[in-house]
Amino acid sequence: MTRLLITGVSGLLGINLALEAVQKGFDVVGWTNSHPLKNTPFQQEIVPLENLETLPAAMQNARPDAVIHCAAIANLDVAEQNPELTDLVNAQAPGVLAQTAKEMGIPFVQISTDAVFDGSRGNYSEEDSPNPRNTYAQSKLAGEKAVSQAYSEALIARVVFYGWSINGKRSLAEFFFNNLNLGKRVNGFTDSIFSPLYVRDLADLLLEALSKNLNGTHHFFSRESLSKYDFGVAVAKCFGLDESLITPVQTAEGSLVTERSLNLSINTVKLQNALGHDLPGVNEGLERLFNDYQKGLRQQLAAFLA
Asked: Where are the alpha helices (DSSP H) in the chain?
C-alpha cells in the first residue's frame, strides 16, 4: 500500500484529495498547520510550514512513499498583507520539502496556480512565460522555481478548482450556492475567465499523474473555459436556484483589494496527451458537485470540525 503525505489536509483540495486517496486504497498521512480535524479516516500531524528547519525531519518521520504538497497561504488579501510569511510558506517551504523528497527518493507533487500568468491574453500553455500580478502569485511562482531547482523530477501541477470544503466557504461554487440558496443577490464577473476543475476530478487526475510518474510542469484544468458570471449561472441551473440574482459586472466594479489576472483560460493539451484521455468539462464537474451534495458530502466534511 502506498503511503501518501498530503500537506494542507484541512484545505479544500487537501481534504478532498485525502478522502479520494483513502477510497483508492492509499495509506494517507495529512499535515495541518495548527488545528487537527476530528474523526478522519487518515493519520494527521501538525506541521507549521513556516518553521523551515523542522520540515526535513517531519517528512522523514512521516515515512511517505510520495508527497502531494497542497498547503499554501491561498487567500490573496492575506498574502498581500503578510508578504514575509507568504514567502516562507509559499516560496521557501516547497523547496525544502522537494529537496527532502529527492533525498528520500520519492515522488513530489507541487500544487501551483493559474495566477502565475498575467491574464492579458489567455489560452496559456506550459511554454508561456509567467508574469504574476500580486504577492500570492509571485510567491507561488517562486515556489515552482524552488521545487524545480531542488528536484528536477518533481511534478508541478498548476490548478484552479472548486468544490465542497470543510467550513463551506472556500470555493466560488460555495459562494454562489450559499448566497443564492438564501435568496441573496451577488455579483458575477463577466471579464474574469478561468478553467475550473471540480476538486474531486482534480484529485483523481493528481493520483493518476502520480501513478504514471509524470514530472515537469503540467496544467490541471477543465478542458473548457468560462467567465465567473457564467460559472455562477451554471451553478444556479445545476441546483435549481434563481440565476437572476447574479448581477453581471466587470471586475473593476467589484471593489477587490488585491489585483487579479483577468483572462486565465488555460491550454491542457500537454496533460491530456500525457494521460491519454480528455480532461473533464465544466458541466461534468458541476454534475459531480451536485451528486456529491446529494450524497451528503457537505455534512461529512463539516463533521470533521465538530
From this structure: 12-23, 55-62, 76-81, 83-86, 93-104, 135-150, 172-181, 199-211, 228-239, 269-275, 282-294, 297-302
CA distances (Å), origin 127, targets 153, 194, 217: 18, 18, 9
- Cβ atoms of 154 and 109 closer than 8 Å: yes
CATH number at residue 75: 3.40.50.720
**What are the pLDDT tens digits along the chain (306 aa)?**
799 999 999 999 999 999 999 999 999 999 999 889 999 999 999 999 999 999 999 999 999 999 999 999 999 999 999 999 999 999 999 999 999 999 999 999 999 999 999 999 999 999 999 999 999 999 999 999 999 999 999 999 999 999 999 999 999 999 999 999 999 999 999 999 999 999 999 999 999 999 999 999 999 999 999 999 999 999 999 999 999 999 999 998 887 888 889 999 999 999 999 999 999 999 999 999 999 999 999 999 999 996
Residue 182 carries which DSSP code?
T
Q: Can you give the residue range of the structural domain that contains 249?
A: 3-305
Q: Are 69 and 86 in contact (CB under 8 A)?
A: no
The strand pairing partners of 75, in sequence order, are none
* Calpha distance 168→115 (Å, rounded): 23
Query: Grid cell 510550514 — which residue?
Result: 49
C-alpha–C-alpha distance, residues 159 and 115, integer Å = 9
Q: Which helix (H) or strand (E) holds 161?
A: strand 161-162
Q: Residue 85 in contact with residue 50, Cβ under 8 Å? A: yes
Q: What angle do CA 247, 296, 29 make, to 5 degrees?
A: 105
197 burial (CB, 10 Å; 0-12 / 13-18 / 19+) is buried
Instruction: State how many domains the chain has.
Output: 1
